[in-house]
Specification:
The complex is a heterodimer of chains A (292) and B (344).
Chain A (H helix, E strand, L loop, with lengths): L1 H31 L6 H19 L2 H27 L4 H23 L16 E2 L2 E2 L4 H23 L1 H11 L1 H6 L4 H27 L7 H14 L4 H22 L4 H15 L14
Antiparallel strand pairs in A: 1-2
Helix pairs in contact in A: 1-5, 1-8, 1-9, 1-10, 2-3, 2-4, 2-8, 3-8, 5-6, 5-10, 6-8, 9-10, 9-11, 10-11
Chain B lengths: L1 H5 L5 H24 L2 H26 L7 H17 L5 H23 L4 H14 L2 H5 L1 H4 L5 E2 L15 H24 L2 H11 L1 H6 L4 H27 L1 E2 L6 H14 L4 H24 L4 H22 L3 H13 L9
Antiparallel strand pairs in B: 1-2
Helix pairs in contact in B: 2-9, 3-9, 3-12, 3-13, 3-14, 4-5, 4-6, 4-12, 5-12, 9-12, 10-12, 13-14, 13-16, 14-15
Chain lengths: 292, 344
């Protein structure tokens, strides 16, 4: 029973990380209809920057703030310089540019910081709570992560559903021509979408770094599982991304705990296929997906 | 699909043209392999099995419009089939390769039937999970599949009539090239057949295609099976050339580089797949040589080839959105303005 509780708590905290990455991917999908495969590399860069800042200044929260700020800037620059040129073209070209960026960023990080992963401090204690004399696998830092995920999901939902900026962003993504005629600065909205997504991504990087360390290739599995979570929930729904992330985290935690960690990726495949066979547009899809 | 099969006629001249192309390509490859040394023969063999996989993927993604991030895993199926049949069961080479094609096609039926329900990013996500999940089987069943070390087979022996000193690398190159030529012949006919037109009809407009009597899901599944068969042969050839089937060779990076190669070469074109295969083989060699020619710190020199690869991907997509083959076609059509270029 203790094992089950531990696995559940562990699943919630890792699932929360997948959920943040999934939120970033959903944000870019809703803003520009592109799946950003470079997300993992972008948050890797911002986490490395945070790590350097923490090392030299000694302040965790300064590094945290710098990571978010650099994410915002990186997202905007990537959209303006690279993605703008392939937007509206064949969808695969955007995918290839994102993959190219992923490889380039990982190589650049390796050149600057080396390929050996380094440790990263957590925001709060990682000592599990003491409940009735037993230490559970859930620490104050995990509470922080889960609260951040809920906060981000709520903020994004509010932004997209109830603010005029969110309405403009949705309009710019779905009908750029019409939106432009109605006075929406489409280009600016797309840049804003990428900047916000990179900000959310950089948050995920800082949150997950203590448990997986910081290295050029260290965040690849996070992107893969984040993408799986986003697809699971339905790429058009923030709530879906959050729920998909937690569900995936829980399922993988149980599989890894009871059956062995080598089955984790296989389990992710089985779960994803099972869900998509029943709902081809993800758990929270409202419309039939028709784009190829 | 029945109607598509009924309309599938292979006109004599198209078949003859395919044969001519294959014979010409075979002659060039034969002369090339005679000229090259051991290392370059091995590269030729690598390029040949890459081409087999890329030809299948470019038909799937370019013609029937289904994105697959999981073709590396399909190659793994073919590779392990050949390794098990040759290594454990001592099958001959050709039956083992045919079995690899068959087994991978069966896997392709399952994956293709699932894939035909999915679109765009959802299909990408499912095939991505396939690419990540399948190689884990090797570690789950280490007794049969060899775990992380993989399965080793004996190198193929050149027949005695070629002489005692016939280099092994050239024999491997011949095997791989013959496999690639078979794929070229079959795929070239498929592309120009009624089935190929059905692929394109489904890609361009699913509703219009089903109004024409095509069963969209079945056409997409057929495309996936054909593509999986190519990937299976490619994987089998990989095992023969490298004498090894190990999970490390079939990581996500392989699936992703296959996808980048077909887009870089020119999506939907078999000639584009040749460009893609050449890039996959030559680019790492060139960038490694280039890096070694400078004296750089370890961190920089270890990562410079990757950085160049990433840069090339981005630059190529921004400069030639249609890939290399589109650029070549543009040059040719400028030379011969009267010719109408066939759209894909």
């Amino acid at each position: 029973m203790t094992k089950f509780i531990d696995l559940t708590l562990n699943g919630i905290s890792t699932g929360a990380i997948y959920a943040v990455v999934a939120l970033a991917l959903v944000l870019i999908w809703r803003a520009t209809r592109i799946v950003n495969f470079a997300q993992g590399a972008m948050l890797m860069i911002t986490t490395f920057i945070a790590s350097s800042v923490i090392d030299s200044s000694g302040s965790y929260w300064l590094g945290f703030a710098v990571a978010l700020a650099s994410g915002l800037v990186l997202g905007a620059v990537v959209e303006r310089v690279l993605i703008r040129r392939v937007e509206g073209g064949p969808p695969l070209n955007a995918v290839i540019v994102a993959l190219g960026l992923l490889i380039l960023l990982e190589a650049v990080a390796g050149m600057i910081w080396g390929n050996t992963p380094r440790s990263f401090p957590p925001a709060f204690s990682i000592q599990g709570y003491d409940i009735g004399g037993t230490r559970v696998l859930f620490a104050p830092n995990d509470t922080f992560i889960v609260l951040v995920v809920i906060g981000v999901a709520l903020a994004l939902t509010v932004l997209f559903r109830w603010t005029s900026i969110g309405l403009k962003m949705r309009a710019a993504a779905f009908r750029p021509e019409v939106a432009r005629m109605l006075g929406v600065r489409v280009g600016r909205m797309l840049t804003l979408g990428w900047a916000l997504a990179a900000l959310v991504g950089s948050l995920a990087g800082v949150l997950v770094a203590p448990s997986i360390f910081v290295g050029p290739n260290q965040f690849d599995p996070i992107l893969v599982f984040g993408f799986t979570a986003a697809v699971l929930g339905g790429l058009d729904s923030f709530a879906g991304a959050a729920v998909g992330g937690i569900l995936l985290g829980l399922a993988l935690s149980y599989v890894s705990g009871y059956e062995g960690s080598s089955l984790v990726t296989l389990a992710a495949l089985v779960i994803l296929v099972a869900v998509l066979m029943i709902r081809p547009g993800g758990l929270f899809s409202s419309t039939q997906e028709r784009r190829v | 699909m029945n109607s598509a099969l009924a309309r599938m006629r292979l006109p004599g001249n198209s078949l003859a043209r395919s044969l001519l192309v294959v014979l010409a390509a075979g002659l060039i490859l034969f002369l090339l392999s005679e000229e090259l040394g051991a290392f370059n023969d091995l590269q030729l063999a690598n390029g040949a099995y890459y081409f087999a996989a890329l030809a299948g993927l470019t038909v799937l993604t370019g013609l029937s419009g289904q994105i697959s991030l999981g073709h590396g895993a399909l190659m793994a199926v073919g590779a392990y089939t050949v390794a098990l049949l040759i290594g454990d069961e001592h099958w001959a080479l050709v039956p083992a390769l045919l079995a690899a094609v068959l087994v991978t096609s069966l896997v392709g039926i399952a994956v293709g039937a699932a894939a035909s329900r999915l679109r765009g990013p959802y299909l990408a996500g499912a095939t991505l999970a396939f690419a990540i999940g399948l190689p884990a089987l090797a570690e789950q069943y280490p007794d049969t599949l060899g775990g992380a070390n993989g399965l080793v087979i004996n190198p193929p022996t050149p027949p005695s009539w070629l002489g005692a000193n016939f280099p092994l690398e050239r024999w491997e190159a011949w095997i791989a090239c013959i496999g690639a030529l078979v794929v070229l012949f079959v795929m070239n006919n498929l592309v120009h057949s009624g089935t190929g037109r059905a692929f394109r009809a489904v890609r361009d407009d699913e509703i219009a295609a089903s109004l024409c009597g095509l069963h969209v899901g079945r056409v997409q599944t057929v495309a996936f099976i054909a593509s999986a068969a190519c990937a299976g042969l490619a994987g089998g050839l990989l095992t023969v050339v490298l004498q090894l089937a190990a999970p490390g060779a079939f990581e996500l990076a392989l699936s992703l580089s296959l996808l980048t190669a077909i887009v870089l070469g020119g999506l939907g074109s078999l000639v584009g797949a040749v460009w893609g295969a050449a890039l996959l083989v030559l680019l790492p060699t060139w960038t490694n040589d280039l890096t070694r020619s400078f004296s750089l710190s370890t961190n920089v020199s270890n990562n410079l080839p990757l950085a160049i690869y990433g840069f090339v991907l981005i630059a190529a997509m921004l400069l030639w959105p249609g890939g290399i083959q589109a650029g070549v076609r543009a040059v040719f059509s400028r030379l011969r303005p009267s010719r109408v270029t066939g759209g894909t």
